UniProtKB/TrEMBL annotation:
Annotated protein name in UniProt: Sulfurtransferase TusA family protein
Lineage, opening ranks: Bacteria, Bacillati, Bacillota, Bacilli, Bacillales
A Pfam short name: TusA
Residue span, UPF0033 domain: 7-31
Signal peptide: none
InterPro entries the record matches: TusA-like, TusA-like_sf
Species: Bacillus mesophilus
């Protein structure tokens, strides 16, 4: 999946991945995709809920070793 921007939130604990995601999303245009890399296990639930509450489209998530990767399309 082709992301417009990649956010490295590895090593950050809650709520920092969400804070960084929100800031990165503000820099994108509607329809662009943000790829987030995180290591906080809570990020899956947090980012899913955050995307839904903001009207963004949570595209998918996958795990690569200990890194959680997420793709969110800006509303």
């Amino acid at each position: 999946m082709e992301a417009t921007k990649v956010l490295d939130a590895k090593g950050l604990a809650c709520p920092m991945p969400i804070v960084k995601t929100k800031k990165a999303m503000n820099e994108l245009e509607s329809g662009q995709i943000l790829e987030i890399h995180a290591t906080d296990k809570g990020a899956k639930n947090d980012l899913t809920a955050w995307a839904k509450s903001g009207g963004h489209e949570f595209l998918k998530h996958e795990e690569d070793n200990d890194v959680l990767k997420f793709w969110i399309k800006k509303a």
